[in-house]
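Blinded run. Sample ID left blank on purpose so nobody reads anything into the name before looking at the predicted structure. Input follows.
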Amino acid sequence: MISTDIKNFGILGYPVGHSLSPQMYRAAFTAAGFPNYNYIPLEVPAGKLYFAVEGLKSLDFRGVNVTIPHKTSIMRYLDAIDSDAMVIGAVNTVVNDGGILTGYNTDVSGFLAALAEANFLPDDCHAVILGAGGAARAILWALCKRRAEFITIGARNPQKANALANDFLNYGSVEGFDWNSEEFKEMIQTADILINTTPLGMFPEVDDMPPIDLKLLPEGALIYDIIYNPAETKLLRLAKEMGFPTLNGLSMLLLQGKEAFRLYTGQVPDLKLMKKALEKSLKLK
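Blinded prediction complete.
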């Protein structure tokens, strides 16, 4: 049955012109019988966030996705926050129920679902995370929830790596390092999975990659880059040439979007159509 209700959704960030969320959600809404559901890019500078959140309620937006730089700062303006988002300290999805705004972080479920699709079980593994930003926090929490045996964080800024590790010491065995240090190079030699959460290698800077010596990793370690544009970063290309299994960020983007769609509508979207819309958009960029 096709719904005639009109509802508004959007992505809130600064900037948002690069986002593929509008194409992905519009395709999903149409396929689910919601042709009157609108998805609008909402470019909001940091100093205007409070007014934007009030506007969401005044204009009766059903929900928004949240991206940089608002994932943390928006939390103070919400009425409720999901437990995952609270631990991570970041929200990427907001649902409006009659003026009550609840924040969620769907990156956790998206990351774990993408690993499951790749037939990788993070339970009892040694995971290495590159980067110590917001994406790293969500992935670190996901790994802690699945009881990874040990998690090593490597970052350009060792103070940030150590601070992130300390934030999660109550949830698992986590250590932070300077990714150029000898200690870090020694740690990665027992990794089951290496996850790049930095923007190094993202379009248009496609010749960049984190300073990681892939030869130090054990045979069969999964190399996972959460970047999806390009589909194969320099890190993944080199890893594939060396015989490592690889995974890019497209599945995580889709699967976290699937969870956000469920929160918005109570339904499961057509992932094939969402993926098709994403792939078409990526070819145009």
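Unblinding after everyone has recorded impressions. The chain is about 35% helix and 20% strand.
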